[in-house]
């Protein structure tokens, strides 16, 4: 096995490998999340799109690996892992939720083959900063934040052993996204589609619309009812919007 393939196998999860040459959707999880979050999306899209779920270190089967608490470092490692998957004849779309949206943007800046599109969910534009210090909270405070976002099964959070497994990765991810500062640079050339919940405390409509400034391509904003994890309540509608964005960017999907 080549070094490049080994790196890719560590970072990339294919839940439903595609037999045909279909577009590839790279799905980047939220803070504290894992590649398995995207299994339902992969199942829904498997006939038209191959989903490549990104697995960050320090969780699930990578739990023994050191955590990475810096967005730029994460983006570099993900870009390296995606290199074997790049094919100028095969469209690749980046899709990230929350922290994953920023990572998608930073990976898009780094890829040697530009992505066909970027889909950013539940996150303000990269240059829209807030002073957030959740990564400095104690474990109880961090657990309370996790519960308030409703992105994790409440029964799992009631299990102290499970909670202690989740919190280190969550804290590292919060440190990464809260200390991130967008470096000025040329806008992307690919279209950007933004998906957001209308009651998301992490994103205002103005902050979501500001993604428009980060592309020379087309821009679209779609709003759903709900909070930060609106997408778990609107799986079919979100899948449809993702399919629409892929079709508009590639003519496929």
Automatic annotation (TrEMBL):
The keyword Metal-binding does not apply. The keyword ATP-binding does not apply. GO terms for biological process: lipid biosynthetic process. GO terms for molecular function: hydrolase activity. Keywords: Hydrolase. Residues 26-247 form the Thioesterase TesA-like domain. InterPro entries: AB_hydrolase_fold (IPR029058), TEII (IPR012223), TesA-like (IPR020802), Thioesterase (IPR001031). Belongs to the thioesterase family. This is Oleoyl-ACP hydrolase. The lineage of its organism: Bacteria, Bacillati, Actinomycetota, Actinomycetes, Kitasatosporales. The gene is rifR.
């Amino acid at each position: 096995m080549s070094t490049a393939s080994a790196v890719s196998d560590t970072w990339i999860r294919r839940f439903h490998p595609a037999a045909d040459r279909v577009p590839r959707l790279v799905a980047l999880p939220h803070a504290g999340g894992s590649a398995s979050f995207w299994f339902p999306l992969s199942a829904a899209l498997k006939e038209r799109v191959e989903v490549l779920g990104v697995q960050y270190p320090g969780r699930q089967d990578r739990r023994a690996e050191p955590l990475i608490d810096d967005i730029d470092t994460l983006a570099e490692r993900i870009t390296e892992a995606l290199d074997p998957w790049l094919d100028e004849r095969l469209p690749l779309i980046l899709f990230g939720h929350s922290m994953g949206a920023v990572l998608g943007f930073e990976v898009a800046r780094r890829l040697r083959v530009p992505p066909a599109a970027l889909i950013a969910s539940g996150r303000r534009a990269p240059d829209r900063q807030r002073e957030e210090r959740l990564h400095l909270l104690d474990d109880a405070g961090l657990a309370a934040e996790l519960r308030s976002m409703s992105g994790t099964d409440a029964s799992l959070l009631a299990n102290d052993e499970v909670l202690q497994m989740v919190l280190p990765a969550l804290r590292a991810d919060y440190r990464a996204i809260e200390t991130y500062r967008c470096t000025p640079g040329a806008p992307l050339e690919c279209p950007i589609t933004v998906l957001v919940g209308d009651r998301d405390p992490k994103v205002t409509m103005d902050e979501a619309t500001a993604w428009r400034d980060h592309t020379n391509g087309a821009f679209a904003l779609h709003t759903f009812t709900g909070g930060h994890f609106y997408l778990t309540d609107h799986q079919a509608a979100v899948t449809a919007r993702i399919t629409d964005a892929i079709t508009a960017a590639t003519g496929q999907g």
